[in-house]
Amino acid sequence: MHLSFKNKVAIVTGAGQGIGFEICRQLALNGANVLLNDVDESLANSASQKIVKENGNCIPIAGDVSDTSFINSIVEKAVEKFGKIDIVIANAGITLFGDFFSYPAESFYKLLQVNLGGSFFLAQAAANKMKQQRSGGSILLMSSVTGHQAHRNLAAYGMTKAALEMLAKSLVIELSPFQININAIAPGATLTERTVDDKDFEKIWSKITPLGRAATTIDIANAALFLVSENAKHITGQSLVVDGGWTAVSPEPF
């Protein structure tokens, strides 16, 4: 099944590398005009340049999604540059491990600001613009398998990811009258620049994942592109787990 995003305008946050980058890349190579956000300006610029070299239309926009004024500026930038906004993927997020008994308030509230605030207010800003445009749109939130199954030292993080899935469900009431669909993806263990630094990551997760390997960024990007495509316009309020079957059995990664 070929997915075309010709003339679509998309924003993807936290996309300097890993899953977010591959989503941007696939959107751009399939015809979308993409705004690639990352908090690291040099990473945003280099990621965008890589996509442009493959003949994708992609522009970088650096900034912190925990800042609501910046979030509003992303949406305005998209409209200013391309005249509209069709697709928003709230991929930016942080993972702060820590034992529950000593988890610091600073880490807890930082998670809330980035993972929840960054996603909630991006969805809000984009939906308001889509509502004005009267042409519908698609919003995708990035959850995690840790929002489905308990994971050691990730109580706070898992809580934020489960909350995003409830947000996708809740906003069906608000967004459906404007033909805006909203869904979430919950990736499992995925090979990215960050996880490959752990020499045991791929070996451990390949062993405990029923399909025999950790996900690649293209596995997650494929699911993301489907959910924001015209083929998925009647799917909304749903959460799709992409984990090779891990949540079905859920062995811990030791």
Question: Any chance you could write out the topology, listing elements then pairs?
Answer:
Layout: E1 9-12, H1 18-29, E2 33-38, H2 41-53, E3 57-62, H3 68-82, E4 87-90, H4 105-133, E5 137-142, H5 155-175, E6 180-187, E7 190-191, H6 201-208, E8 215-216, H7 217-227, E9 239-242, H8 246-249
Architecture overview:
By secondary structure, this protein is an alpha/beta fold. It has one domain: NAD(P)-binding Rossmann-like Domain (Rossmann fold, 3-Layer(aba) Sandwich), CATH 3.40.50.720. Helix content is 44%, strand content 17%. The chain has eight helices and nine strands. The chain has a seven-stranded parallel beta sheet with strand order 3-2-1-4-5-6-9, with helices on both faces. Strand 7, helix 6 and strand 8 form a beta-alpha-beta unit. Helix 1 crosses helix 7 and helix 4 packs parallel to helix 5. The protein is globular. It starts with 8 loop residues before the first strand and ends in a 5-residue tail after the last helix.
Measured between the Cα atoms of the first and last residue, the distance is 38 Å
**What is the helix content?**
40-55%
Order of helices and strands: EHEHEHEHEHEEHEHEH
Task: Quote the beta fraction.
Answer: 15-25%
Identify the overall geometry.
Answer: globular
Question: Based on DSSP secondary structure assignment, what is the total number of beta strands?
Answer: 9
CATH architecture: 3-Layer(aba) Sandwich
Strand ordering within the main sheet: 3-2-1-4-5-6-9
Name given to the CATH homologous superfamily: NAD(P)-binding Rossmann-like Domain
The chain-level structural class is alpha/beta
Total of DSSP H or I helical runs spanning 4+ residues = 8
Average pLDDT value? 95
Radius of gyration: 17 Å
Task: Give the CATH level 1 class.
Answer: Alpha Beta
